[in-house]
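User: For my dataset I need records formatted as: sequence, then structure tokens, nothing else. Please produce one.
Assistant:
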Amino acid sequence: MIKKLRVDHRLLHGQVAFSWTSALNVDCILIANDSVMKDELRKTTLKMAKPNGVKLVMKNIEDSIKAINSGVTDKYKLFIVVESIADAAALINGVESIRALNLGGTKATDKTRNISKAMNVTPEEEDILKNLVDKGIDVTIQMVPEDSAVPVMKAL
């Protein structure tokens, strides 16, 4: 069962590893990211951030979609974390059962504008988010479980 899909450019860190896994009562975290799979140092770092008692799985986007759709992840209370809005959209488009997206944080660059405390989006990402909302996906901004979830359209 997918408990949450979250965009967080830091992927797995204290806030995600402990606040969200505890609040969601998950037993497995799936890091869905193409670049992590090619970077042994990042994989090692992510493994060290994993909370005790929670399984950590790392797969590229394509393999993540295949695994979820195959049913192999159904036995877990699954928390999926992706690095970007584009990765989240790819998962949502590839997995029919994902109907919600939590936006946690993305990096500020010279091409982004800030829409909340930690969310920075490019014009292309704004279009992706609007398309997801138009398709009926519940897209909210929420850094930590204690914060109120804000519908993304209020911030755009």
